[in-house]
Amino acid sequence: MDMKAGTNPLLQPWDTPHGLPPFDSLRPEHFEPALAAAMQAHRDELEAIATQAAEPDFDNTAAAFDRAGAQLAGIAAAFYNLTSSATSPELQAVQRALAGPMAAHHSAVHMDARLFGRIAVVHARREALCAEQRRLVERLHLDFVRAGARLPAAAQQRYAQVMQELARLTTRFAQNVLHDESSWQLALHGEADLAGLPDFVRASARQAAAERGVDGHLITLARSLVVPFLTFSQRRDLREQAWRAWVGRGENAGEHDNREVARDILRLRNEQARLHGHASYADYSLADTMAGTQTAAQGLLNEVWPRALAAVERERAALHEAMQAAGERGEIEPWDWRYWAEQVRRERYAVDDAEVKPYFELGRVVQAAFDCATRLFGLHFSARDDIPVYHPDVRAYEVRDREGRVVGIFLQDNHARANKRSGAWMSSLRWQARNGAPQLPVILNNNNFAKGEPTLLSLDDARTLFHEFGHGLHGLLSNVTYVRLSGTQVLRDFVELPSQIFEHWIGEPEVLRRHARHYQTGAPIPDALIERLQRARRFGQGYETVRYTASAIVDLAVHALTDAEPPADLCAFEAELLQAQGLPPGVGLNHRLVHFQHLFASSGYAAGYYYYLWAEVLDADGYDAFTEAGSPFDAEVAGRLLRHIYAVGNSVDPAAAYAAFRGRGPTVQPLLKKRGLLEAA
Ligand SMILES: [Zn+2]
Fold first, then answer.
1. Greatest Cα pair distance in the chain
2. Which label site among 161, 569, 658, 676 has the fewest CB atoms less than 10 Å from its CB?
3. Does residue 368 belong to any structural domain of this protein?
């Protein structure tokens, strides 16, 4: 195969609508040479900045640094998007081969003493700059420092090795989880195995079987399939099998075992932190967050934990009672919880998922999200089927503002596939910026809904779609000058505010009446069902809050360890910690360390699973501004939300941005109220 630049589509001008990656002509073997060439081009640009004769100033150093590397960023974004959403053994091999060199490139850029020297000069004179320029210079300076720019030469060399090794290990961790998820399956034979499963779960299980070329019904470890199975299956033995496989991901002996991989990552992170002079990785990581310290993050978890334990105990008692009334013996086990919670929900609130789902057909939920963005921010979405995408499931949209100007491109990939990682996430193929030629954002949302005919969502699924769409809007509505400050590249415990606040709209009766229509009859969801849904939602909050908070506690604890050597048995560490915290045995965790991708598939949420709760303080308090104004679409509040939160990216300090939106700092009470935890103290 000829791999000269002349034939590699990644290295040609991207002659596609809006300059999207030429997905329809990309092959795995294009990436390694293209990324190598793009890294070289980036180095050349930086060399020109470092060696110029002119005195360092904002334009020739900070703004120029911000402009550099656009080609590399574009190719890397296309690559990582494919490895997450449509991977293959070939792409996985390229990903393993590139992890080290990409990390080495990042280290080399930030350890270039000439570049850092110029940034430092501009930084020292930053008071004379305008606010956004000053913010950029402060951010770049901190990026350099946190990547090791100030370390002595010998320490820098070791630091770069540590970062490369971490990149290899986190890649392996993620590939191991994907392996365990895509290789396990439970075949259901006949009516006895299908007992309790509503039509939509059966349809998804048939679809999963068809995708794997077999007849009948298959349960896989895709969250969108295994969670409904655990919720509805009357077969306790099969629920137990599915549960054990699900929580056992990453803990299977052999070449995909993550137990040692996670320990190796923790050991290297501890070394990384020590090189920076911090006692633990949690200290290093939290230094660049809104919370700022372990004490602040832990303080929020401590405030919520005992209230959540009290709430979950009330729920457990109700579940146990229902189980005994049905003549089953023993205690509620983790594989029983969802099933009996569904029974209690049905009995107490007359709500069950099978009744609710016909009102949440996927296409209608997508339109509901678009409509909320129109009413709040004046955005309009129109399908562009001529834009090349990487899989037929992906839909592309052009996004216009009130004046009809195109402000961005939005791609949505909603379905679970065997070659796609689990969960839901937003990513960017290009950030908005106008440092040089203005560039429109290209924003991608991934969900993992099981495909059906039609695809029907639960209210939780719909909320997930709104969550990711909130991140998407944060990217699409970005209105800043510099790439580094654009979109969701904010402090990490602030990033869930735009996503979580957007979840509130799918719970609004006004939105539900308009968009939650029965897929067969078109009838709107009845008011009485909305009311029952809202009461029923309170019931599960103890379970959700305890599982989430337990995972956040484990994350902080394991990253707060100061010993160079991590615990010999991470699974035992996790179990002992949770027992000491009083986690009821029937609950189970959201994520166990051996498959906790937030922590170990990258450093994104390492020592940072608390981010969601931190941002929830802000979103609960922030959404009250609409309640106080008397309408979920109050134009004045929506205008402030757009100006101070969605549009500013990282160009403003997050605490100041929030105060500008709300007129004051946040309080924790609305979060406790929203989760029904106030009475539980
Ligand atoms: Zn999120």
1. 84
2. 569
3. yes
Domain total of the chain: 3
pLDDT in tens, 263-291: 999 999 999 999 999 999 999 999 999 99
Tell me: do 409 and 510 sit in the same domain.
yes
Q: What is the 367 CA–ligand 1 centroid distance (Å)?
A: 20
Task: Express each pLDDT in 485-535 by its tens digit.
Answer: 999 999 999 999 999 999 999 999 999 999 999 999 999 999 999 999 888
Q: In this structure, are residues 413 and 394 in contact, taking their beta carbons and an 8 Å threshold?
A: yes
User: Is residue 274 situated within a structural domain?
Assistant: no
Residue 252 lies in a domain: no
Determine, yes or no, domain membership for 493.
yes
What positions carry a catalytic annotation?
468
Domain boundary, last residue among 95, 126, 150:
150
Tell me how far apart the alpha carbons of residues 9 and 22 are, in angstroms, rounded to a whole number: 7
Please check whether residues 199 and 54 belong to one and the same domain. no
Is 587 in a helix, a strand, or coil?
coil
* C-alpha 473 – ligand 1 centre gap (Å): 12
The pTM for the full model equals 0.92
Residues around the ion ligand 1 (C-beta < 5 A):
496, 499
Cα–ligand 1 centroid distance for 467 (angstroms):
6
Distance 424 CA to ligand 1 centre (A): 8
